[in-house]
# Entry
Amino acid sequence: MKIFSGSSNQPLAKAICSYVGIELGCSTIKPFPDGETFVKIEENVRGQDVFLIQSTSPPTNHHLMEMFIMIDALRRASAARITAVIPFYGYARQDRKDQPRVPITAKLVANLLVAAGTHRILTMDLHAQQIQGFFDIPVDHLYAAPVMYDYLKQKKLKDLVVVSPDVGGLKMAYAYSQVLSAGLAIVAKRRKSATEVESMAVIGEIRGKDVLLVDDLTETAGTLTQAATILKRKGAKRLLACVSHAVLNEVGIERLRKSSIDELVTTDTVQRPGITGVRLTTLSVAGLLGEAIKRIHSNSSVTSLFEFKGGRTS
# Structure
């Protein structure tokens, strides 16, 4: 087995290798003067079971192209099996035609991964579960929830209500509420644009309680901060937020600084620069991904990684 990494999240790749107990594979990735990407795999991979770690975080198109080129290089170097380990799957929000004449880019990315030579996908907390069906190759879909749960359990939260900031996240919120023995509520919202949301109402009792907002992805933090504002207005005592992928841009960071959220708990699926003025806790999913890689390599079951405290996260 060999593990290689693109340039999107080298610290996570090294942490995964440390867990698995092997060195990160050696490769050269550099730009040509015209911006094209040059890749060279510096080790023999003939007949090897190869795992390529690459999050498709911003700059998304650059990291995607880099991944396709690395997969092509590995395929042409006669790797026996190539598994694309994608901790954060970009373009996942474009998973359906919700307007006339728009693409389904999540499916296009799936097609390109297979065309490049990928034999298997390992990913985490897809924005939409049905994206697994976009692939005609095996997909192992992990959840960050077990890592989040271990951290939240240590905080000994009492009188807790888990809140979904929109209807789409209700399934995830329900799973958290089950394992944390907490109540459940939802913020009904209407999206005005890609960067703005208009929260409408809270369904459920949250007055005087600690609130845990859960979501799979935040970028501009519009949904989260709007939900936090309305929850505080409705009498929530303390506000925590759990987000699997915090792909925060400047707008999102500024909104979080001004928001009522006391702590944002996220994972290292996406590499971020240092952020000040926000209480941000980053938990590592290296152990979870590393264990999945070991089991895929040995053809063992990955099912138990989907479960925690006796309940499935889906």
Summary: The chain has two domains: 2-142+286-306, 145-283. The longest strand covers residues 183-191. The chain has a mean pLDDT of 90.
